[in-house]
From TrEMBL:
<dbReference type="Pfam" id="PF04127">
    <property type="entry name" value="DFP"/>
</dbReference>
<protein>
    <recommendedName>
        <fullName>Coenzyme A biosynthesis bifunctional protein CoaBC</fullName>
        <ecNumber>4.1.1.36</ecNumber>
        <ecNumber>6.3.2.5</ecNumber>
    </recommendedName>
</protein>
<keyword id="KW-0285">Flavoprotein</keyword>
<feature type="domain" description="Flavoprotein">
    <location>
        <begin position="1"/>
        <end position="168"/>
    </location>
</feature>
<dbReference type="InterPro" id="IPR005252">
    <property type="entry name" value="CoaBC"/>
</dbReference>
<comment type="pathway">
    <text>Cofactor biosynthesis; coenzyme A biosynthesis; CoA from (R)-pantothenate: step 2/5.</text>
</comment>
<dbReference type="InterPro" id="IPR003382">
    <property type="entry name" value="Flavoprotein"/>
</dbReference>
<dbReference type="Pfam" id="PF02441">
    <property type="entry name" value="Flavoprotein"/>
</dbReference>
<feature type="binding site">
    <location>
        <position position="375"/>
    </location>
    <ligand>
        <name>CTP</name>
    </ligand>
</feature>
<keyword id="KW-0460">Magnesium</keyword>
<feature type="region of interest" description="Disordered">
    <location>
        <begin position="178"/>
        <end position="204"/>
    </location>
</feature>
<comment type="function">
    <text>Catalyzes two sequential steps in the biosynthesis of coenzyme A. In the first step cysteine is conjugated to 4'-phosphopantothenate to form 4-phosphopantothenoylcysteine. In the second step the latter compound is decarboxylated to form 4'-phosphopantotheine.</text>
</comment>
<feature type="region of interest" description="Phosphopantothenate--cysteine ligase">
    <location>
        <begin position="211"/>
        <end position="441"/>
    </location>
</feature>
<feature type="binding site">
    <location>
        <position position="310"/>
    </location>
    <ligand>
        <name>CTP</name>
    </ligand>
</feature>
<comment type="pathway">
    <text>Cofactor biosynthesis; coenzyme A biosynthesis; CoA from (R)-pantothenate: step 3/5.</text>
</comment>
<keyword id="KW-0436">Ligase</keyword>
<feature type="binding site">
    <location>
        <position position="300"/>
    </location>
    <ligand>
        <name>CTP</name>
    </ligand>
</feature>
Length: 441
């Protein structure tokens, strides 16, 4: 993929060097276009060395190649990081006073901007209006992170981490698979329909939709220091939330015990137990949700009794091998409950996840098909799990199953961001003629 990386003049320009490395290590061809101010923070030699390509800095350099037009025309993706308040203003007003703004005017590919500035500048009505204009024109503008800024200041305005910008950029470009990504299907493609095994090239396929995503793993307390839990890190759910936001959705992320950074532009509700998660998902779904994705690993059981004091082991020699007996009760089936609550209504569209292991009675796919039939959801994402498989890892392999076909679409092994893109492609296909934007409420 041919990427133009624009860098404007802010202290966060040093982070763009890390972003550049992510693109080049991913096999992408990157041309860096820094503004004159950006070169005061990071020099041309750094950009050239990291990209392995000449740096484009002036409209008047290599005039015979018409760089102010060619760069934008030939790019598959334009990313500006950091995007200062000045750059956002010039882009919103169609200025063409340097090579970067010329490139933005000629680009007909997806454009992603990652703002970075002081809190007062980000919240100023002029900046708010400029961001709104750019978003209305189809530019994806990330919300800045909150944290330490220049000097002793803190607050919203910090450049998102390079990994987050990179993931959002790849998702915006259509989730283009890297070399380690595979898309397979047993079905012969219909020549008259879009190829559902390829990433969606519309960067705003979820524009105006409200999606609810659960992530992480629930914990069921036993006493003040112990709980029953699982190995889920929340990475897949967070990737789903991040990609959905980059495609224009309003995202509510129900996060169960995950330490991951919150994706930009995503509303987070933190929960602990399965019952907490059930209440949070129902509340968020009632807010005109178009899609609910249950990616969290929810405990099937919880201790019947919670003990107010820590369980002590016995020091009596006659009981040194004894252990307490813990009685468990079933947690509610949240996914099946969502389907039952929806009834015959067309929305929300419901996506389930099945973390499966094969056993003597069947393989992962057979167990997943049985679960799809039991749950009644619209799409099931099945993946193999284990001590060293999927949980906490950065890549995975999943199978996408729908109730209207026996075929399974296999995605991966691939990054969890790429898997998220494939899931949202499938959801966009299911939504296309199903519900109006904003749900049925």
């Amino acid at each position: 993929m041919r990427v133009v990386l624009g860098v404007s003049g802010g202290i966060a320009a040093y982070k763009a060097a890390l972003l550049l490395r992510l693109f080049t290590e991913g096999g992408h061809e990157v041309t860096v276009v820094p503004t004159e101010a950006a070169l005061h923070f990071v020099g041309e030699a750094t950009w050239s060395a990291l990209s392995g390509r000449p740096v484009a800095t002036q409209v008047w350099s290599s005039v015979h190649e018409v760089p102010h037009v060619r760069l934008g025309q030939e790019a598959d993706l334009v990313v500006v990081a950091p995007a200062t308040a000045d750059l956002l203003s010039r882009a919103a007003h169609g200025r063409a006073d340097d090579l970067l703004t010329n490139t933005l005017l000629t680009a007909r590919c997806p454009v992603l901007m990652a703002p970075a500035m002081h809190t007062e500048m980000w919240s100023h009505p002029a900046t708010v209006a400029n961001v709104a204009v750019l978003r209305e024109r189809g530019v994806s503008v990330l919300d800045p992170a909150a944290g330490r800024l220049t000097g002793t200041d803190t607050g919203p305005g910090r450049l998102p981490e390079p990994e987050e910008i990179f993931a959002a950029a790849i998702a915006l470009a259509g989730g283009a698979p890297s070399q380690d990504t595979a898309y397979e299907s047993a079905a012969e493609p219909d020549q008259n329909q879009p190829d559902q095994n390829q990433p969606n090239q519309d960067p705003q396929t979820l524009q105006g939709r409200h999606v609810v995503v659960s992530a992480g793993g629930t914990r069921e307390p036993l006493d003040p220091v112990r709980f029953l839990g699982n190995r889920s890190s929340g990475k897949q759910g967070y990737a789903l939330a991040q990609v959905a936001a980059s495609r224009g959705a309003r995202v509510t992320l129900i996060s169960a015990n995950s330490a991951l950074p919150v994706p930009s532009g995503v509303d987070v509700v933190e929960v602990e137990t399965a019952l907490d998660l059930q209440d949070a998902v129902r509340d968020a779904s009632a807010d005109h949700a178009d899609v609910v994705v249950m990616a969290a690993a929810v405990a099937d059981f919880r201790p019947r009794d919670y003990l107010e004091a820590k369980i002590k082991k016995s020091h009596d020699p006659g009981e040194e091998h004894s252990a307490p007996t813990i009685e468990l009760v079933r947690n509610p089936d949240i996914l099946a409950g969502l389907v039952a609550d929806r009834g015959a209504a067309p929305s929300p569209l419901i996506v389930g996840f099945a973390a499966e292991t094969g056993d003597a009675s069947g393989d992962v796919l057979s167990h997943a098909r049985a679960k799809l039939a039991r749950k009644g959801c619209d799409l099931l994402v099945a993946n193999e799990v284990g001590r060293d498989v999927t949980f906490g890892k950065d890549d995975t392999l999943v199978h996408l199953l729908r109730p209207d076909t026996d075929e399974a679409r296999t995605v991966g092994p691939a990054s969890k961001v790429s898997v998220a893109g494939a899931v949202w492609d499938e959801v966009a296909h299911l939504l296309r003629d199903r519900t109006p934007v904003g749900g049925d409420g």
